[in-house]
Amino acid sequence: xxxxxxxxxxxxxxxxxxxxxxxxxxxxxxxxxxxxxxxxxxxxxxxxxxxxxxxxxxxxxxxxxxxxxxxxxxxxxxxxxxxxxxxxxxxxxxxxxxxxxxxxxxxxxxxxxxxxxxxxxxxxxxxxxxxxxxxxxxxxxxxxxxxxxxxxxxxxxxxxxxxxxxxxxxxxxxxxxxxxxxxxxxxxxxxxxxxxxxxxxxxxxxxxxxxxxxxxxxxxxxxxxxxxxxxxxxxxxxxxxxxxxxxxxxxxxxxxxxxxxxxxxxxx
Length: 268
What we know:
This protein is low in regular secondary structure. It is built from two helices and two strands. The protein has helices at residues 6-21, 37-45, and strands spanning 118-120, 144-146. It has a two-stranded parallel sheet with strand order 1-2. The relative contact order is 0.09.
């Protein structure tokens, strides 16, 4: 188990307060998990013989660091506040899973199905592991995400209709926004996603699908949108200082460029 600093403990406490402020329905942090750590590890190891053993379970607050669960079925499972540090979840089915407040340092979600999953205020700082979680090629369609993921790998991820932006009606504890500064979103599908106010400076959005994406007030300074499809995307009040728009598709059909900040300083 990683050594946790006082600041990390305080951060987790603030995460729980933030999550409480978001009025997350159906969560009870005081409730005991349905299975023990040993039972979860055993079930993940024997997933082929009993594929539904972990489906819909409450695994809140368990320390599942290093869990080997590639291809496991976690549909509807709650990992609220659980430690998934360096867990192998490649190709796992996490459709509708609750990952709010989960510790995800170094976790690998490559190719995993996170359709409709919730990743609010996930923890990526504290302890000995400094690596970002990996979502390469993951399916995050209609997922809800508020997280600090600077430099994270989401290349080829399916983020269609995902809610990544700020919900102004739910900001009782101050504005929380997703940080994807320098993240790799090359080839990602963000069609119809709400990415308003998200931090995306120097993000790699090459060949990304941004059709109908809400980028209102997003910070896109230095972001690379080379070859991206921006048909119907809304750039109203987005900061485009130094953003690269070479070979962009659908630029004539994009919205809000006349109201974007520093579009004249974009690279075209």
